[in-house]
């Protein structure tokens, strides 16, 4: 075990996978000499050279098409898209190419690439640099979408994503890079598609990913003071989704709060709600509560941004409402 | 104290389904005179004033101002006597079609009455969480009698747990939540209030009420509120009736077995039985079965004590295709047709036409009353009954002759009611309730 920051854990995962597999290479904007805007690839260009860690021009559309073709031709590229807000520029390659080639060509091609990006608000980055577009990505069949919340999962899941033969979108959060946590030593992977119960509880289940898990844990503390025993499930992976973990928890608590930092309408929280009703309707003692961003742009003004983003207090209120 | 419905039949046009309640001119508890404006409703064309049809007191209102009421609904009731609790104003959340199907069954007195309202009912549908529904289904518990403590009166798991615990049962779920729920109660201000789960075991055995042919459990709606509060009451739909249209029965034993199964499924070992007409016959057959310990029997114009039955009435009931035709047959049922609520025939017809109930009823009638004869004889069953038994019959009964009561053994009390036809519980609810109560109490 070692105490690491989230960004350091990602760096360690990249480094270990590059050492283990020469077909793994990195590219993206400012990831080489600068080490990445969030320092995730710090030192890797020095260690692995300019052919395996490439700085590219600013064209997310071209970069993603590059990842698709590089993966098809036998390498394991790891592409960094600096902000999730720029993901819409990558969508043609994801929706019309990466996600369906395997199907169109009857499994004759594999698509082992990772698209790393970071999203989310709370950093005063304004409407164009604060979005969590995970719902948009999780909507695409044929692509895995994961969003770990701890340094240990960040490392273990990035390693698993690089080894996966399907395209994996790896969602990070700008406010998670500096959190610290214990990370197991050595070659430890965390499977994609498995949720983790990060806090046991009996009264209400809170489901979240990424930074929202941090808020959910805080909410559970607040709820404990209220006399409510909340269970927090870190889904870790948006797609594939660990439905079993969801149903098991609801069968225990009969109350569900789903949290997502993205927009509400057609959002991931809506998907979770529907999944719960599909699989655990008869376990529900109250309607599923959704805690999401309102359907509006994220303001630059700090007080307004704070007011809009889902947080522990809003999760607590939603949990209490389901228990009424 | 009879309650008379305030109808909006006359207010609506032919082409509308609902009206909007604009203004109550009278508050519950206040006196009204026949012809006096009582409520204004908005129809498709205009605001229409509904006048009181009789003198009395405004007893209850079922729709508040601004609420939509279906045409054919009972807006409220006028009572012949001043309501005891005139302060209990405010609309009750029971917008029911006429005749109001009664949702009150088990009175769940063990549950906190703080939530107050009866089970939340919207258009006759009980509002309950999926979990509460599942648990109630598994326990054979009727949600209609449970008060919901959740938002908008929704019945939640804790309410089912309270009802079961009042019945002396643990909820049959492998779930820790039942014990977790009270924790919520400790929450500070603004937090959810879990009801106080009372684990009082019921002192008295429950009373099971069985309706007659062609009716359903709502047949008891006038009587139920008048019964002593210490008795839990349970109303069931007989096979082929009400919510049980999907099932039928071959004969009276079948009916008794079916009801017996359901009583056992409720976890009830001892109970008082009250049965009307076919329900009375079923109660007798059920007593003869001996599977459920019967504490007392109150039989209202019961079947099974003689061969005669008004075949025209039975046939008319199952064959009528218009409300007007049915109304004429229904008036045979009572001594004074005025006791039938306005719109009653239409509502009965609608309910019978739902789910093909008419065909089910006709088939059942064919088996039970073939050729205008009661196909079952329960006289010997009645003679063997050893618990307090009371037979109540209207002297003006035109469906089953009250003379059948003269065949009752000396151990049974017989009450013959003047000016009452085949349906004492509707025609003389106070007296009927009193006689039921006396039977219950005589069982000790």
Automatic annotation (TrEMBL), chain A:
Which cofactor does the UniProt annotation name? Answer: thiamine diphosphate
Q: Which domain of life, per UniProt?
A: Bacteria
**CDD domains found in the cross-reference section:** TPP_PYR_E1-PDHc-beta_like
Concerning Gene3D superfamilies, the annotation shows: 3.40.50.920, 3.40.50.970
Q: Which InterPro entries match?
A: THDP-binding, Transketo_C/PFOR_II, Transketolase-like_Pyr-bd, Transketolase_C
* Classification via SMART domains: Transket_pyr
Occurrences of domain Transketolase-like pyrimidine-binding (ranges): 4-179
What are the protein's UniProt keywords?
A: Oxidoreductase, Thiamine pyrophosphate
Q: Where are the transmembrane segments?
A: none
Protein known as: Alpha-ketoacid dehydrogenase subunit beta
Origin species, per record, is Mycoplana rhizolycopersici
Q: What is the lineage of its organism?
A: Bacteria, Pseudomonadati, Pseudomonadota, Alphaproteobacteria, Hyphomicrobiales
From TrEMBL, chain B:
Q: Which residues form the Peripheral subunit-binding (PSBD) domain?
A: 127-164
> Which of UniProt's keywords are assigned here?
Lipoyl
The Swiss-Prot or TrEMBL record lists the needed cofactor(s) as:
(R)-lipoate
S-adenosyl-L-methionine as UniProt keyword:
no
Which InterPro entries does its entry note?
A: 2-oxoA_DH_lipoyl-BS (IPR003016), AB_hydrolase_1 (IPR000073), AB_hydrolase_fold (IPR029058), AB_hydrolase_sf (IPR050266), Biotin_lipoyl (IPR000089), E3-bd_dom_sf (IPR036625), PSBD (IPR004167), Single_hybrid_motif (IPR011053)
What are the residue boundaries of the Lipoyl-binding domain, all occurrences included? 3-79
Presence of the UniProt keyword Hydrolase in the record: no
Pfam families from the xrefs? Abhydrolase_6, Biotin_lipoyl, E3_binding
The organism's place on the tree of life at top rank:
Bacteria
Xref: NCBIfam families:
PRK14875.1
PANTHER family noted in UniProt: MONOACYLGLYCEROL LIPASE, MONOACYLGLYCEROL LIPASE ABHD6
- Identify its protein family: Belongs to the 2-oxoacid dehydrogenase family.
Q: How is this protein named in the record?
A: Acetoin dehydrogenase dihydrolipoyllysine-residue acetyltransferase subunit
Originating species: Mycoplana rhizolycopersici
Species lineage: Bacteria, Pseudomonadati, Pseudomonadota, Alphaproteobacteria, Hyphomicrobiales
